[in-house]
Amino acid sequence: QGHYESRMRIYFVGAARGKSWTQMVSTKVLGGVVLAAVFAGVLLVNSFFWRRYFQVSSVRDRLVDGTCKLTSADFQSGLSSNWAFPITGPSWTSVHCYVHLEVEGSDGKQVSTADTTALAITMRHDGIVFNIMDTTCRNQVPKTLQAQKDDGGHFDCAYATGPTGLVEKAYVGKKDSVPHLPKLLLMKACGLSFWTLGPILLMLLCFIKNTIKGAEARTLGEACDAYAKLEAEERANQIDE
Fold first, then answer.
1. What predicted TM-score, i.e. pTM, was given to this entire model?
2. Hey, what's the torsion of the CAs at 226, 231, 236, 241, to 10 degrees?
3. Beta partners for 120?
4. Phi then psi for 91, rounded to 5 degrees?
5. Do 62 and 161 form a contact (C-beta atoms < 8 A)?
6. Is 203 exposed, middle or buried (0-12, 13-18, 19+ CB in 10 A)?
7. 154: exposed, middle or buried (Cβ count in 10 Å: 0-12, 13-18, 19+)
């Protein structure tokens, strides 16, 4: 009976140790999965910010001045976006509408357009409070039509053409009057990368540094062990002599 109890005690102790080891491995795996998910999320958000910057910057670089004319009061509403430079910078709302538009270059030649063209109407704000009720195509397209009539049937605009030669997007006003959105998006992308990828890079560098130090310490320890073993063998040989 005593032998049986000893075997059972050994069995339960081994099972408990095995369970504890399994739980520890599961916790490490779960922690690794969570860290990988967090890292993937950080990379995804950063890629979105940088992709948005490059897309908007590409359109900005291709803008040229010209004149535009709304040929119809019909429109399709797009998204309105509010922007503001930190602290003392300007703030504005970009109202995006899809309209029937004719575009002429600075040389007076007609530029090809699709049936509907994206037209961005910029509304500047004096403070940080945005007039939400006025930042709609329903309000801005008629105002642009009226300004067009008052200005001789056209209005100044800046436009960018796509790979097919069609006008990809147009802005009300000359290029110099359009707020420099790419600069703001670059600030946002750099700030996000600094505060998210920066700590990850720092931890990675610390990990690499500690790994190198650990390898050096192991190498030094092995060298000391080998030297101690060699010294012990020499002493043993001296005693035998």
1. 0.71
2. 130
3. 96, 171
4. -130, 145
5. yes
6. exposed
7. middle
106: its two tokens: 């600075």
Backbone angles phi, psi at 98, to 5 degrees: -105, 115
Bridge-based pairing of strands 117-125 and 167-172 is parallel
- Beta strand pairing call for 155-161 and 91-105: unpaired
Tens-level pLDDT at each residue, the chain (241 residues): 444 444 444 444 444 444 554 555 466 667 667 777 888 888 999 999 999 999 999 999 999 999 999 999 999 999 889 898 887 778 899 999 999 999 999 898 999 999 999 999 999 887 555 566 678 999 999 999 999 999 889 999 999 999 999 999 999 999 999 999 999 999 999 999 999 888 877 877 776 777 777 666 666 656 566 655 666 666 666 665 5
In the numeric block, which tokens belong to residue 154? Answer: 């056209």
How far is the C-alpha of 50 from the C-alpha of 35, rounded, in Å? Answer: 22
* Token pair of 194 as six digits: 């600094």
Query: Which residues, 6 or more positions from 105, have their beta carbon under 8 angstroms from its beta carbon?
Result: 64, 66, 111
Q: Which residues contact 189 (CB under 8 A, 6 or more apart)?
A: 46, 49, 50, 52, 53
Q: What is the DSSP string of 114-134?
A: -SSEEEEEEEEESSS---GGG
Beta partners for residue 1, in sequence order: none
Say if residue 113 is exposed, middle or buried (CB neighbours under 10 Å; 0-12, 13-18, 19+): buried
DSSP secondary structure code for residue 77 in this structure: E
Q: Which residues pair with 234 in a beta bridge?
A: none
Q: What gap in Å lies between CA 172 and CA 177, rounded to an integer?
A: 9
